[in-house]
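Narrative of accomplishments. A recurring question from our advisory board has been how the design workflow behaves on a single, concrete structure rather than in aggregate. To address it, we present the structure tokens for one chain from the evaluation set, followed by the sequence designed for it. No filtering or post-editing was applied between the two.
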């Protein structure tokens, strides 16, 4: 089991074994998920699925006409 200590600013160093297992590098983003009373830390994919899903929902009603499809068909 790996552990780390919180600083006064609530920051923690991710232990080397965890960084290596997740293939983390400086500047990478990590995601915290709550699963059955536990917190799971994961490397955030380059394209955050929740962001893309929210974006899709916002744009689907704005760009959903036949005219839009024809205008942007060749892109």
């Amino acid at each position: 089991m790996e552990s780390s200590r919180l600083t006064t600013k609530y920051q923690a160093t991710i232990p080397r074994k965890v960084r290596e297992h997740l293939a983390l590098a400086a500047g990478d983003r990590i995601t915290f998920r709550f699963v059955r009373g536990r917190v799971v830390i994961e490397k955030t994919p380059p394209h955050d699925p929740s962001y893309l899903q929210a974006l899709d929902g916002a744009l689907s009603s704005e760009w959903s006409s036949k005219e839009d499809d024809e205008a942007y068909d060749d892109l």
